[in-house]
Fold:
Amino acid sequence: MEFRQLQHFCSLIQYGSFTMAAEHLQLAQPALSQSLKKLETELKVKLVNRSAGKSDKSISLTAEGQALHEHAKIILGQMEQAQRHISSMASLSLGEVRIAVPGMLGSFYLPSRLMAFRHNHPNIKLSLFEGGTRDTLRMLNQEEVDIAIITAADMQDNFDGHFLLQEQMVAAVGFDHPLADFNQVSLAQFLAHDLVMFKTGYFHREWLLEQAKKLEISPQIAFETNLIALIKQLVSQGFAVSSVLKMAVNQDDNIHAIPFSPPISLDLYIAWKKAKPLSCADTAFVEFLLKHAK
Structure:
């Protein structure tokens, strides 16, 4: 049973004759008759009582025809609804973008870009999921989100994506901290002080612990939190130092952002699964973000 056959069947019922239905469908009348006959053969039932007389208007439905008509109306209605829905998505008048991002990007990089994209596409819903690197990768692999912003080191063979931006990592210290007068700081100098770090699963933590291991330093983790505002408070009050993206520090934070020596930067990518093609809304968002990356 094909969708086209159901269209022919419903048109026949709507117009009440093969002649009028064929004219509406822009078919030859024999082609319409053959379509109905094929449908009856496939279903192994008689759907229409054809008049034995000359009138083409005395068509009536059998019980099986009435039952199929009820189902066919629902199917055709849902198909029309689906077509309208997909057309709306293709024209970007409807859709949703689900994106996973690290906390710092979600707080300091994306807000203005999300608002600008929303201004251009007010009917597209934006769902933002903030979390650590491990959660971001899990959500992307399990298709809980459509796209994610990840580091170059986290790009996997089953991902596709584009380079988004490079951002510098800095040592964040309070104005009264011993490191505050330094123009740059080595990792060894940085790791000699009490740290406030993200919890397990965040790239910054994993990277710093890996560097400490290479330097044979046991880092002193005084605080663990994923709350960026709390990290800033602890740093500004001199309780600990932290490593953050440079974009996360502004003039009102009472924090010095000191470059590392040698400089340390992160290459960030916007990525998605190769096996899951991007929707029209996703594609529009990716293109917008790449255009306004800086």
